[in-house]
Design goal:
mainly alpha, globular, 21 helices, about 475 residues
């Protein structure tokens, strides 16, 4: 009887495991964007200024940077199912405490707990996918998972604005609880508890690596929020360089470091990581910039500005059934180079949208943005993981998650910095056109990233086909 149960669980894992991972991806990406449009409401309710609420974002980001490197080791040591369920539980408890917060201090403490869970949810779920599926099925599976991540990212501002305008900001956190409980229930019944041999826990490496991530993240947050304290920034940059050096020296002497830099010798992993970073410098700030432009420059409400992002979500869904055939026909190299350039063109055109622009024109742009973003994320994620095996899957997956998280922070910080510089007239430009120049600057970053993908060969990723 036990063997039959185990066999049934294995069959369920083949068909339903991607759905568990998709739920985790959706929750994390939704939480990462839903807060942006609700921060003014939270600030007003708690009696703070909007700028004082920056710590809510910073606290969450720094905690992610600290705990993401742990995810792979914990999953291999204690099992993917066990750690995934713990991670989701921590996330929903953090969400509950966020909703119950009465001031900024209690909200920040709740965000720390929420971020600890978030730092492990997606990496562990995706690691289970890498262990479960052969390479020739990963493209289709990762394509499905990425869809939910994109939906969460795009739906976040819309949902955040709707809940804040029609109910209360508390619901942006409470909505995580039923979704999380569904994820835990499904994981218990479906997810295999994969375990792999791990060495002694590399505590010193974790300290060096995590503190280095925190240092560079703080630099980005300070710059992005318009607080250019040069002494502090230079000190943090020096600390980042010093900690990075310490980690490299430690890595060379350690048999099983927390982050194995030797994996960067895998060419597709290295190209995928670098391309993801540079591309997200351009498009990572859009979930922040678009609602901000629509509300502050065009006078739309939070609900309306959020709803205007929905066409990109719908186009994300529409293009997914064709994704595998697109990549099979053109190949990863051609898709990533051309699609990155097309994304940059969309950003340039968005820079010329005005309050008088017809809604239909704007919706068309959002549709193209959704299609190209969907293709980009699926292709970047899968090519990065394409040459990993059972021994390198955990470390490579952790590297990808770290780079994704950093690049999102980088993207938001770069977008915020560019906007503030253009608004302050530092470049002697018309401040009223700050959004236009910001979109053009981000487009340059995006188009530039296409050169990174040109280093791929035409046969790279062939094992996914």
């Amino acid at each position: 009887m036990l063997n039959n149960k185990e066999e049934k669980k294995e069959q369920n894992a083949v068909y339903l495991l991607p759905l568990v991972t998709a739920i985790a991806m959706f929750m994390q990406s939704l939480d990462g964007t839903i807060l942006n449009t609700s921060l003014p409401s939270i600030a007003k309710n708690m009696g703070y200024s909007a700028t004082e609420m920056d710590s809510v974002i910073v606290t969450y980001t720094l905690t992610l940077a600290m705990f993401i490197p742990l995810s792979g080791w914990l999953a291999d040591k204690f099992g993917t199912r066990t750690m995934f369920m713990i991670a989701v539980f921590l996330f929903i408890m953090g969400s509950l405490f966020c909703a119950l917060s009465v001031d900024l201090n209690t909200l920040n403490m709740a965000r720390v707990l929420q971020a600890v869970g978030a730092s492990m949810m997606v990496p562990i779920a995706r690691l289970a996918i890498l262990y479960q599926y052969p390479k020739n099925e990963l493209l289709k599976t990762m394509n499905f998972i990425t869809l939910f991540g994109l939906l969460g990212m795009v739906a976040g501002p819309s949902l955040g604005g709707f809940l804040s305008d029609n109910f209360s900001w508390h619901w942006i956190f409470l909505i995580n609880i039923p979704i999380g409980l569904i994820g835990i229930s499904m994981a218990y019944r479906i997810m295999p508890n994969f375990k792999h041999a791990v060495g002694r826990f590399d505590f010193r490496g974790l300290v060096y690596f995590s503190l280095a991530l925190i240092s560079i993240t703080l630099v980005l947050e300070l710059i992005g929020n318009g607080r250019p304290h040069m002494i502090v920034i230079l000190s943090l940059l020096f600390l980042f360089g010093l900690l990075s050096l310490f980690y490299y020296i430690h890595y060379k002497k350690t048999e099983k470091p927390i982050i194995d830099l030797h994996l960067l010798n895998i060419r597709t992993l290295k190209i995928g990581l670098m391309g993801s970073l540079i591309t997200r410098l351009g498009i990572g700030g859009l979930p922040l910039l678009l609602p901000l432009m629509l509300q502050t420059s065009f006078g739309y409400s939070a609900s309306v500005s959020g709803l205007l992002l929905l066409p990109s979500a719908l186009s994300n869904v529409a293009v997914k059934p064709f994704m595998v055939n697109i990549i099979k026909f053109f190949g990863y190299r051609t898709v990533l180079i051309s699609n990155t350039i097309l994304l940059g063109i969309v950003l340039i055109v968005l820079g010329f949208v005005t309050k008088e622009t017809p809604i239909g024109y704007y919706i068309l742009l959002m549709i193209f943005y959704g299609i190209f973003t969907s293709i980009q994320m699926s292709a970047m994620n899968t090519i990065t993981l394409s040459d990993l095996d059972q021994d390198t899957a955990s470390g490579g997956n952790t590297m990808l998650v770290i780079m994704q998280q950093l690049s999102v922070s980088f993207g938001v910080s770069v977008a915020s910095l560019a906007l503030s510089l253009f608004q302050d007239g530092i470049f002697n430009v018309d401040a009223s056109k700050a959004f236009q120049y910001t979109f053009i600057a981000l487009a340059v970053f995006t188009i530039f990233s296409s050169f990174t993908f040109s280093k791929l060969s035409k046969t790279d990723g062939g094992g996914y086909m």
